[in-house]
Amino acid sequence: MNPSLFSGDGLVGLIFIITIGITITGGMIACNAERLVRAVAGLITCFIGVGALYYYLNSPFVAMMQVLIYVGAVAVTISFAIMLAAPEEQSTPSRIKAIAGPIGFITAALLTTGLSLVALKSPWINEPKINDGSVEVIGTQLLTNYSMVFELISIVLLIAIIGAIVIAREGRKS
């Protein structure tokens, strides 16, 4: 029996689809924007959508960290880098750029179709809840089972900070 839109399951599914739509729309804006400021706005929208997906997956701490680290730190650092960088000159469109868009669209359509077919034909099993998603459990897992991932995240943030410092040292060239 399929749940109706006005049942609890139907509304949860609708919210999930809206969240995925926000994430994909933000990613599309980030990839296709002509101006860097709009691309950063799309990136922020995509990051917020990913945070909402984490929250949907019953991990509010990871969702909060997604928003704090990526929206609050990385996206703001990129925004400062754009403001401090020298404005780029307008370039003429090349022949390669003219065919890159359709090739990218066809590739994305094929990948989306393939993944959708796999998702629709695969059996989805409800897994039992592993833990309560508390900060204590996440902290213990980050410092024991997932310590390498924790260190890689810190390296990504360090690279973002170093990039911002390098751009800020040079400043805008007149």
Low-confidence stretches: none
H/E element sequence: HHHHHH
Determine the mean pLDDT.
Answer: 81
Q: Approximately how much beta-strand content do the residues carry? A: under 5%
Share of helix among residues?
Answer: over 70%
Q: Note the overall shape.
A: globular
What does this protein look like?
Helix 1 packs antiparallel against helix 2 (36-56) and helix 2 packs antiparallel against helix 3 (60-84). The chain has helices at 8-32, 36-56, 60-84, 95-121, 135-143, 147-170. Helix content is 75%, strand content 0%. The longest helix is centred in the middle third of the chain and has 27 residues, at 95-121.
Briefly, what is this?
By secondary structure, the protein is mainly alpha-helical.
Write the layout of secondary structure elements.
Elements: H1 8-32, H2 36-56, H3 60-84, H4 95-121, H5 135-143, H6 147-170
Helix pairs in contact: 1-2, 2-3, 3-6
